[in-house]
Prior knowledge:
The protein is of the alpha+beta class. It has five helices and seven strands. The strands form two sheets. It has a five-stranded antiparallel beta sheet with strand order 1-7-6-5-4. Strands 2-3 form a two-stranded antiparallel ribbon. Helix 1 (about 10-15) crosses helix 3 (about 35-55). The longest helix has 17 residues, at about 35-55.
Amino acid sequence: xxxxxxxxxxxxxxxxxxxxxxxxxxxxxxxxxxxxxxxxxxxxxxxxxxxxxxxxxxxxxxxxxxxxxxxxxxxxxxxxxxxxxxxxxxxxxxxxxxxxxxxxxxxxxxxxxxxxxxxxxxxxxxxxxxxxxxxxx
Length: 137
């Protein structure tokens, strides 16, 4: 699998699921500062069901967890050895960003879509993927 596209709510759930509580809480505070703990539970339930429908989560050890093959996509966002950010403005003045993360899991690109509500994370297979990304950017 080379791509994992998830909503902001699913990303927050994934961070919590993988034990990255600070990152999950940081996103929650940035995008949903008014949500109380009870509402956060509802948000997690909906995100979990969505990940189950995508076959990206499973019930393991009495918890809903991200499947192992999806974990590197979340881990690289949390703990990359190096990150390079590409940024440009289009004709309408909107900014487009792509972050490239390098870690022990490989090299990944991370792009925010639809007003930062959707995260597209792609694993690169070789250096030519990076060059193609630069050229298309």
